[in-house]
């Protein structure tokens, strides 16, 4: 097995064992406002969302997890069945291994076979050769291309990249030739005002903020390389709530996916209310695939969506546009951070 394929299995094992954090996502300091006279019928709550030209039943993305080693097609198949049955989007894990060794392509292509009409995202490093990025899109007839930014992870990995000098130039080249929209995705350390400013200058219209507080790739790599000294980076990154609001501040009129430790129905609805267009969830789906059959994965996901609709009813939002007009109160550390960064948080509290 190649080092890359081995790494895929190790990532899964460590992700299943390492708890989220230690940094907090910040959602404890984000409050939705209960509406006692909401006057809505739960059956009328509409959560449909048009993403990349296709209709989702709920703005949820099973975020990039895996593929690229023999045996991993089983995980991708179950995820694709859940995405198809629940009407949500799916991203595959990094396709680099299959770009090096085409015999591994089937571990990714299974998602398109199982879910021919669904929204499926390709995934490669933002540093990949642009021609290979196009091959990744073709491999799974992808609707969009996630380019992942994982500088922190690379620095901790003994075999990781050290030179990021051509990162922006490479993103620009890929964007110019990509037949599908390019989505810039962090993997758990968050996008900042400064990062988004640079990406907006390249004309990027899709962001996955990948904030800190959920799956921690510093912790996963430290566990994999158990001799690294860089334990300081365990606590590195921009909490999800802060990263989301910084990105919203700079990237208005773009499509923004909130992700990074967003695991509960309430945190999903908080993200959508703040202004995210969709929410990405990764490790909880891995845990489901690890412990449940496909029917239970579907039931669990449908139940999550139902609970989100109940919360929408409780704040008086009949659809996703209404939800973004409802007040959201931001307190504590996120408020303090955002205010010193020049972002007005009161506008969220005074809505409606
Ligand atoms: C086992 C595992 C493998 C992952 N592989 C990738 C990957 O190949 N490409 C990528 O962009 N993100 C990858 N991620 C990161 C997730 O897509 C996501 O950004 C991160 O886990 C934070 O979301 P979460 O807190 O919902 O898990 C992986 C995550 C896990 C747990």
Search tags:
globular, 8-stranded parallel beta barrel, binds flavin mononucleotide, TIM Barrel, 16 helices, two-stranded antiparallel sheet, alpha/beta, 352 residues, single chain
Short synopsis of the structure:
This protein has 352 residues and is α/β, with parallel strands linked by helices.
Give a written overview of the molecule.
There is one protein chain. This protein is of the alpha/beta class. It has a single domain, classed as Aldolase class I (TIM Barrel, Alpha-Beta Barrel), CATH 3.20.20. The protein is 44% helix and 13% strand. Strands 4-5-6-7-8-9-10-11 form an 8-stranded parallel barrel, surrounded by 6 helices. It is globular and about 60 Å long. Flavin mononucleotide is lined by residues 11-12, 15, 63-66, 93-94, 123, 146, 148, 185, 187-188, 210, 214-215, 259-261, 281-283, 286. Flavin mononucleotide binds at residues 11-12, 15, 63-66, 93-94, 123, 146, 148, 185, 187-188, 210, 214-215, 259-261, 281-283, 286.
Question: What's the topology here?
Answer:
Blueprint: H1 3-17, E1 30-32, E2 49-51, E3 54-56, E4 60-62, H2 73-86, E5 89-91, H3 96-100, H4 106-114, E6 120-125, H5 130-139, E7 144-149, H6 151-156, H7 167-177, E8 182-186, H8 193-201, E9 206-208, H9 217-224, H10 240-250, E10 255-259, H11 265-274, E11 278-281, H12 283-291, H13 294-315, H14 320-323, E12 328-330, H15 332-340, H16 346-349
Parallel strand pairs: 4-5, 4-11, 5-6, 6-7, 7-8, 8-9, 9-10, 10-11
Antiparallel strand pairs: 1-12, 2-3
Helix pairs in contact: 1-9, 2-4, 2-13, 5-7, 8-10, 11-13
The structure holds flavin mononucleotide.
